[in-house]
Amino acid sequence: MVKGSSLPDEKLAAPAAVPPAGRPAAGRRLSRRQQGGRPAERRALAARGLPYLLVAPLTLFIIGLALIPAAFTIIESFYRANPLDPPTRFDGIGNFRRLFANNAVITSFGNTAGYVIVGVVLSTVLGIFFAVVLRNPFRGRGILIAVLILPWALPGVVEGILWTGIFDPSSGLLNGVLSSLHLTSHGSVLLGDNRWLTIVLIELVQVWQITPLSTLLVLAAMQLMPHELFQAAAIDGCGPWQSFWRITLPLARPGIAVAIVQALIATLNVFDQPYVLNGAATTGASITEQTYFISFQNLDFGGGYALSLLITMITLIISLIVVRGVYRRIDY
Q1: Whole-angstrom Cα distance, residue 141 to residue 136?
Q2: Residue ranges of E strands in the chain
Q3: CA triplet 200, 202, 208: central angle to 5 degrees?
Q4: Cα separation of 326 and 264, whole Å?
């Protein structure tokens, strides 16, 4: 006879469910650390948000200083805004039609094209030359760089005043040198008489100002070049001229592209040097000068907005073309 079990005749209780790892049991309150997430997750979230937090002030500054005025300029360029002819009213492309019918504006476009060609070519070539000279360390290199930067640090108005004495017809240094060499007669007027001579001489003053920045930009690109490349080229029989054309110039293209763009922007928006050296004469007036004349002498603010918009669009388009054509990413 089988002896009966001493356990009560009822179903055995099912074992309590074990909560998954990381999840609290039912009825148990979450700790403060569990409610806020793991410390590693919080640190990762803070690390992802930190870059955006750091660039937020700069972004707001750019929006307030550049984007909002640009939007205002675009809108106002389609309105006729003249205090002498109120009220301000929508004019469509009327401002642009009047600009292209203005002979002074058309002449200033040609003058500015001359400034751009002379300024960009000379500043870029001189910048590459001075960068090659300053690339290798030598005694007095720091002093030479400091002297080179000086014209870039001076305001354009100050430079125009300095060069006014050089170009002076009666007592100017340049006129005295040319007359002593019997190239011109004493008292020759250099500025304002011949249009293209005026443009070249005025742009030489701006080239004197912007060449230091071009030099520093190209020099910075050259400082990144590995010396092993030039050593290998010398072993292979390349001379200095071949190394320059085959190694230095191609590897310096990022710096050269930036130098060309900054020179392009400076020459397209030149104002100080033509205004100080040549005044309001049309022989050397730039587009930016015409913007000033239209807006603050004629009080045609709508036309001034329209011309400013044209300058901005031209600068942007040409800069993009230069970057796409010259810039190359270099991986060492």
Answers
A1: 9
A2: 79-80, 89-90
A3: 100
A4: 13
- The mean-pLDDT minimum among 70-79, 171-180, 262-271, 318-327 falls in 171-180
| Cα 105 to Cα 287: distance, rounded to the nearest angstrom | 7
Percentage of the residues of the chain whose pLDDT score is greater than 90: 33
- Are the CB atoms for 278 and 192 separated by under 8 Å? yes
**Using alpha carbons only, what angle is made at residue 220 by residues 219 and 222, rounded to the nearest 5 degrees?**
60
pTM of the complete model: 0.78
Residues 218, 126 contacting (CB under 8 angstroms): no
| Domain locations along the chain | 3-58, 94-326
CA pair distance 80, 87, nearest whole angstrom? 8
Tokens of 289: 């000068």
CB-based contact 159:169 (threshold 8 Å): no
pLDDT above 80: residue 63: yes
For residues 40 and 50, give the distance between their C-alpha atoms in angstroms, rounded to a whole number.
15
pLDDT at residue 33 above 90?
no
* Cβ atoms 214, 261 nearer than 8 A: no
CATH number of 94-326: 1.10.3720.10
Position of tokens 């307030």? Answer: 64
Q: Kindly report the three-state secondary structure assignment for every residue of 142-211.
A: HHHHHHHHHHHHCCHHHHHHHHHHHCCCCCCHHHHHHHHCCCCCCCCCCCCCCHHHHHHHHHHHHHHHHH
The DSSP code for 279 is T
